[in-house]
Amino acid sequence: MTRIAMWLLLLSIASAHAQIVSVAPEYQQRYNNLLHELRCLVCQNQTLADSGSGLADDLRLEVKRMLEEGNSDQQIFAFMSDRYGDFVLYKPPLKPRTWLLWFGPFVLLLAGLIGIRRVVQANNKSADSTQLSDAEMKKINDVIQDRDD
Amino acid sequence: MKALIPALLFFVISGFLFVGLYKDPTLVSSPLVGKSIPSFTAATLFSPDKQITQADLIGEIALVNVWATWCPACKHEHPDLVALAMKTDIPIYGLNYKETDKAEARAWLRQEGNPYVLSIADDDGRIAIDFGVYGAPETFLIDAQGVIQHKRVGVMNDKIWQRDFLPIIQRLRREAL
Question: pTM higher than 0.90, yes or no?
Fold first, then answer.
């Protein structure tokens, strides 16, 4: 009895999530990959694979239909971005508008490296000067004198 | 000079974050603006036996409004649409998106007023996918050639009409002269 109740509970949880679309085994792998690369526009931080929204259900069916009609992955991505923009693609395409997105982190990294080099060089320079200034010499002598007294 | 660098960085980062504050992530700019409305063949809400196509929507500047009775925000914007339909001569076409209860949809329009010239019956949501719809209500402004000129995601009201739609309509009319 508890077992049945548990299964029913599990089923009801599953139904609140993504509606399962059955795909022919030869497409299964590509289908799964595609769904993980596409964003659900209703719940924006979920992929099509995870989302339980009605639109995501419909779009999964579209992906299935296009696979079965022999479309390439590129054609399916194009179908989605033609309608919903590049935003649906989890891997945004490389173009002038997305240069900052793609190269920004590397530019920041480079800037950081240059900054570190400068700091290290500056430190080395000050460490090189082993000569004491007159004022420093006088200070040391004073300390020694104090101790001797 | 050197001391200015952290301050400069601070302002650049703050600038990005400040702009980000006022951006609504749910507003995704539509790649369909500038393109023709997608082709379709469908029945209408009030004449299930009649088939219409995209050609029936093209010919003059018009609005296409995505709605359904299951959509609370659509019901909320409805009075504003009815008022808009009365004050403007621009036709409003409805896209009845995945309607769950057509009898209720018809009753709703009879009772609350029907701002639509007709409502396309998009039962399985396939037409809406071609329109790039992701959050009803949505309103498209199309020109006389059937090219989408603007897309509004979210409710429509007089303020948005004046601010976003009218300037484009005035420009289109000037260009048509």
Answer: no
